[in-house]
Amino acid sequence: MAYSYPLLKKISSYYRKIPHEVGETYLVCCQHLLEPQKYMFEELITFGFDPNKIFVLGKTYSTSTEILEELQALKIRAVQPPFSGVAFDQEHAKNCSELMNMIPQGASCILLDDGAQLIQMSMSGDKNILFAVEQTSSGFRKLENIALPFPVLNVARSATKLLQESPLIARHACDRIKEYFEDRNLLKPTILIVGLGPIGESVRECLEQDGYTVSGFDIKHGHSDLMREITTQEVDVIIGATGTQILAAKDIETLPSHKSLHLISMSSSDREFAVAPFRNGNTATHVDIVYKSVTFVNNAFPISFKGNRYESLPIEMEKTMCLLGGAVMYGATANTLENGLIPLPEELEDLTNP
Q1: Are 37 and 320 in contact (CB under 8 A)?
Q2: I need a surface site. Which of 37, 41, 162, 250 has the fewest CB within 10 A?
Q3: Are 28 and 102 in contact (CB under 8 A)?
Q4: Rounded to a whole number, what is the largest CA-CA distance in the chain?
Q5: What DSSP string runs through 52-95?
């Protein structure tokens, strides 16, 4: 799918004109390894980063093996350890630790993170963290109430991401959800969306527009007792969009067994539903896990990812790449950055939205 990423190139050209020196700086990243990310890394190399000092960890559910190999061909230290079948967060913490151990002690580093695991473990590490970039709401929630010893550029709460990216992600997820319904012949399922933030609300709106029966559940809206909600509504499908665990293993064991229940995740992991105890050694990523009457759709990983080279149109994801790559370039050219969470500068938002 040919696309030239003109906005990304414009932002790269803008920041390249500002004095900076990153040739000896390590760029340590956790990212989805998809085609748009590859173009972002190419622009970061053009900006001045040494590809041998760019270390990138993928996520097991969102890594394209083609892109992984192409990043490695660029001399980027891109890695994707095989999936072991344990809970993603447990495995991801181990992978992040191993990635950081590849960086020399005392090295000056910039972190580009997805989920804040690299950021959290670097707070007391032996590297010189110049600044970090965090892109996810779940990562933002981990960081918002702690004293950060270095600056963290907050892509997660940028206006562009919240107002433009969330509806795109939701629409793409809805397309995948409807494909699943068609494959399983689920004609008129009763759907419960747990978590009514930007993504959850966008998914609910999308499904309602397509004529589905959808209700919402969110403790911030005064709701309580999720298990009671599931049983009284005779729910067929639960969509988790909280970024936290909503059903533990003991809850899954006690779910009603007289009808099928389909669990679909929108989170950047498998944490919405405690699927790991029910995998029974299955280390395939994009498979449905069935336990009694419960189906963990796509292995309880976000339904938006299937291991493809790109999971949505490049033009749709370009602005996200602009925010991420642009935040790294902005931080590298800034005279000073204060410790803690920092909003993206207006200049980057304006460049991303000409």
Answers
A1: no
A2: 250
A3: no
A4: 66
A5: GGEEEE--TTT--HHHHHHHHHTT-EEE-PPP-SS-HHHHHHHH
Strands 108-113 and 77-79: unpaired
228 to 225, 233, 246, 340: CA distances (angstroms): 6, 8, 13, 40
Q: Judge contact between 251 and 225, C-beta under 8 A.
A: no
Number of C-alpha atoms within 13 angstroms, CB side, residue 191?
27
Confidence of residue 316 (pLDDT cuts 50, 70, 90): confident
pTM for the model stands at 0.94
Band of pLDDT at residue 312, cut at 50, 70 and 90: confident
Q: Other CB atoms closer than 10 Å to residue 65's CB: what's the count? A: 12
CA dist 219 and 324 (Å) reads: 31
Residue 238's CB is within 10 A of a number of other CB atoms, namely 26
CA distances for 63 relative to 41, 159, 232, 254, 290, angstroms:
15, 27, 39, 34, 24
Q: Per the structure block, which two tokens stand in for 208?
A: 């309602």
CB 330 within 8 A of CB 153: yes
Q: How confident is the model at residue 1 (pLDDT cuts 50, 70, 90)?
A: low
Q: What is the pLDDT of residues 70-118, one digit of tens each?
A: 999 999 999 999 999 999 999 999 999 999 999 999 999 999 999 999 9
DSSP H/E element including 117: helix 117-122
Distance CA 126, CA 106 (A): 6
Instruction: Quote the tokens at residue 347.
Output: 């200049």
Task: Give the residues across from 264 on adjacent strands.
Answer: 239
- First-to-final CA distance of the chain: 24
Predicted pLDDT of residue 2: 81
Nearest Cα neighbor of 77 from 61, 53, 59 is 53
Q: Which amino acid is at 190?
A: T
Mean pLDDT (whole number) for 142-161: 94
Q: At which residue do the structure tokens 């910039």 appear?
A: 110
